[in-house]
Write a structure and sequence with these properties.
81% of the residues lie in helices and 0% in strands. It is mainly α.
Length: 395
C-alpha cells in the first residue's frame, strides 16, 4: 500500500485546488454580477470541460503507450499548466481576465484528472480497491482541509496567497509522483489497448449495462446535491447565516475533516459489507443531515451537522468509483473513469445554476431542501440496482 499513499499526492493536489476554487472564486465573481444563478453557472466551467474531454481522455489513456506509461504523460502536461493558471486567477483585472484564467485552469485540469484517478485501479488488485480508494481520498481530504482552514487564513492576508500556495503544492506533488511511480513497473498488468479508428467511441458504448446505468443515475443525483452545496455554501453562509467570508469557508473544513477521518474506514466497510450497502447508508444519512441543516441558524450546530455529513459523504464517495470500475472489464478502467466523471460533471453543470436560480426566486433557505431532494432520488436509483449477479462488483 506504500505506492497507494504516494499516489494519494495526485488526489491531494486536485482536492486542494478545487476546494480553493469553489470557496473563493464565487467572491471574485460576486464583484461583477449580482445574480446567484449566473454565479452558479460560471462555477460550472470546469464541468463543461470534464463533460467534453474527460471521457475521451480517459479512453485515450487506455491506448497511450510512452516511456512514461499510459497515464503519466497527461499529468506531466496538465499539472504545471493548472498550477500557473490557477495562481493567476486572483490577479484578474476585469471579468474577461477572470473568466480567461478560470477557463485555462479548468482546461488544464481536465487533461490529467481522469488519468490520475485511473492510476489507482491500474496499480491495485480489485479486492483492495475500496481500501485503496479510502487511502487516496484520505489524502484528498487532507488537501481540502488545508484549503478551507489554511486557505481562509491566507485569503484574509491577501486573496492571491491561497492560489499561489496551491500552485506550488501541485508542482511538488507532481515531483513526488514522478519519483515514486513507474507505471510499467508498478501497474498490475501494464498492457495498453490497441489503437483503432473510432476505438474510444466503441469502448465508451461497450460499457453500458443495466446496473451501470442505475448506478450512474444515482451518481448524477448525489453529485447534483453535493456540488450545488459546495459551490454555493460560502455565499449561503455569508448571505443567509450572516457569517464572514472566512467563517463560511472555514466551516467547510469540518465537513472535509470528517471525510478524512472516515475515508479509510469507509473503504474497509465497503470491502467487508459490500459497496452498495455502505453507499445506501451514506445516502440515507445525508438525506437526514441536509434536511436538518436547512433549519439551522447557529454556527456551532451547523458545524456539528457538517461533521456528520462528512462521515456519510465518505461512505458514498469512497465506494462509488470502485463500484463503477468493478462493473466493467479490467482493460477499460480509463474509459469507465471517464464515464464516472461524465455523470458527475453533468450534475455539477446542472446543479449550481439550478440551485442559484432557485435561490434567486425563493431565497437561500431553499438550498438544503433541494439538496435533500437530490439525495432521495439517488436512493431510489440505488434501489433499482439488483444484487443478483453483482457479487464481484459489490464486494
Amino acid at each position: 500500500m506504500r505506492k497507494t499513499w504516494l499516489l494519494g499526492f495526485g488526489f491531494f493536489s486536485i482536492s486542494i485546488t478545487w476546494a480553493l476554487y469553489n470557496a473563493f472564486v464565487p467572491f471574485f465573481l460576486e464583484k461583477y454580477m449580482a445574480s446567484t444563478a449566473l454565479i452558479g453557472f460560471m462555477m460550472t466551467i470546469d464541468n463543461y470541460f470534464a463533460l467534453l474531454l474527460q471521457p475521451w481522455i480517459g479512453a485515450r489513456s487506455d491506448r497511450t503507450n510512452t516511456r512514461f506509461g499510459r497515464r503519466m504523460p497527461y499529468l506531466l502536461i496538465g499539472m504545471p499548466l493548472a498550477a500557473v493558471f490557477g495562481a493567476l486567477i486572483p490577479w484578474h483585472v476585469s471579468l474577461f481576465t477572470l473568466v480567461l484564467f478560470m477557463v485555462l485552469m479548468n482546461l488544464s485540469m481536465s487533461l490529467y484528472r481522469s488519468p490520475t484517478v485511473a492510476l489507482m485501479p491500474d496499480m491495485t488488485a480489485e479486492a483492495k480497491r475500496t481500501q485503496a480508494n479510502g487511502i487516496i481520498n484520505f489524502m484528498g481530504g487532507i488537501g481540502s482541509i488545508l484549503a478551507f482552514a489554511g486557505g481562509a487564513y491566507l485569503y484574509e492576508q491577501h486573496a492571491s496567497l491561497p492560489f499561489l500556495s496551491a500552485g506550488i503544492l501541485t508542482l511538488v506533488c507532481l515531483g513526488i509522483l514522478l519519483l515514486a511511480i513507474r507505471e510499467k513497473r508498478d501497474a498490475i498488468a501494464y498492457q495498453p489497448l490497441a489503437k483503432a479508428s473510432g476505438a474510444s467511441w466503441q469502448a465508451f458504448k461497450a460499457e453500458w449495462n443495466r446496473p451501470t446505468v442505475f448506478l450512474l443515475g444515482a451518481i448524477f443525483f448525489w453529485f447534483l446535491s453535493y456540488q450545488g452545496v459546495e459551490a454555493l455554501f460560502t455565499l449561503y453562509g455569508k448571505n443567509h447565516l450572516g457569517l464572514t467570508e472566512g467563517e463560511a469557508s472555514f466551516s467547510l473544513a469540518f465537513f472535509s475533516l470528517a471525510f478524512v477521518v472516515w475515508a479509510i474506514p469507509s473503504g474497509l466497510l465497503g470491502r467487508r459489507f459490500g459497496k452498495k450497502l455502505i453507499i445506501m447508508i451514506g445516502v440515507i444519512g445525508l438525506v437526514a443531515t441536509y434536511f436538518a441543516i436547512a433549519f439551522v441558524e447557529q454556527l456551532l450546530a451547523l458545524r456539528l451537522l457538517l461533521i456528520i455529513g462528512g462521515l456519510f459523504w465518505a461512505m458514498i464517495n469512497i465506494n462509488s468509483y470502485p463500484f463503477i470500475v468493478a462493473l466493467g472489464k479490467e482493460q477499460s478502467i480509463g474509459t469507465r473513469t471517464g464515464i464516472y466523471y461524465l455523470f458527475s460533471s453533468l450534475a455539477a453543470i446542472v446543479s449550481p445554476p439550478l440551485m442559484g436560480a432557485l435561490i434567486d426566486w425563493f431565497g437561500y433557505s431553499i438550498l438544503f431542501f433541494v439538496a435533500t431532494g437530490g439525495m432521495l432520488l439517488a436512493l431510489l436509483l440505488l434501489l433499482g440496482i439488483r444484487d443478483k449477479g453483482l457479487a464481484r462488483a459489490s464486494q
